[in-house]
Amino acid sequence: MKRIAVLASGRGSNLKAILKAVKRGEIAGEVALMISDRADAPALEIARGDGVNALHIDPKSCSSRESYDQVLINALKENEIDLIVLAGFMRLLSPLFVQAFPLQILNIHPSLLPAFPGNDGIEQAFNYGVKVTGCTVHFVDEGLDSGPVVLQEAVPVIQRESVKTLQQRIQAVEHRIYPIAIDLFCRDKLKVEGRRCYIIDKET
Ligand code: GRF
To answer: Based on the number of CB atoms within 10 Å of its own CB, is 112 exposed (0-12), middle (13-18) or buried (19 or more)?
Structure first.
């Protein structure tokens, strides 16, 4: 059983979906730790409600990005974490952090990367007027939303819909594909070669 840490700053709907999937036995791992940079993040309450060790680590208590990331690294190492799952964690992680956990950090981004990286991926795609957008699970590297892609799913934009309904439909897909990607990692089914992430099955 892999030990998973979820890092989240906000609402926590992906965290909720991951916790549900763990309970249903759909992820070969346990959420052993949850960390938020915001004291008021609903995600903290969601984790605590499920009996998960949930920490608020305040960026204001650290003098630099690196020193904050070092505190995160220490907490993750102390808890013997195998996989770090970013679920709406609104901080850019330093190279120090990324190098401490090579190919052990996953993120979900609400667009079909490499289109519309950064904040507001949904709004960016909506305002551009694309007909198809979606979401991407990827490994985290030192760039912005630029690591190897694990899973992607397209979501068509419905004519004249609002950004809100588009967001709801993208999030519903996120809640389905993120647990799948996490489970693949936990079962050692992901193999990264350069930019490509292969899903290993019995036949290959
Ligand atoms: C998701 O839309 C995810 O794609 C992005 O942050 C959002 C987090 O939402 N990285 P929630 O807190 O899981 O509801």
So the answer is: buried
The CATH number assigned to the domain holding 73 equals 3.40.50.170
CB of 121 shorter than 6 A to ligand 1: no
**Structural domain count, the chain:** 1
Ligand 1 neighbour 13 (Cβ under 6 A): yes
CA–CA separation, 163 and 200 (whole Å): 36
Q: Residue 149 falls within a domain, yes or no? A: yes
Confidence (pTM):
0.97
* pLDDT tens-digit map of 119-158: 999 999 999 999 999 999 999 999 999 999 999 999 999 9
Whether residue 204 is contained in a domain is answered as no
Between the CA of 145 and the centroid of ligand 1 the distance, in Å, is 13
- Between CA 200 and CA 196 the distance in angstroms is 12
Helices marked H in the chain — which ranges? 13-23, 42-49, 65-78, 95-100, 121-128, 163-186
Domain that holds residue 92: 2-199
Measured in whole angstroms, the distance separating CA 203 from the mean position of its chain's CA atoms is: 29
Closest ligand 1 atom, residue 109 Cα:
4
pLDDT, one tens digit per residue, over 169-191 is 999 999 999 999 999 999 999 99
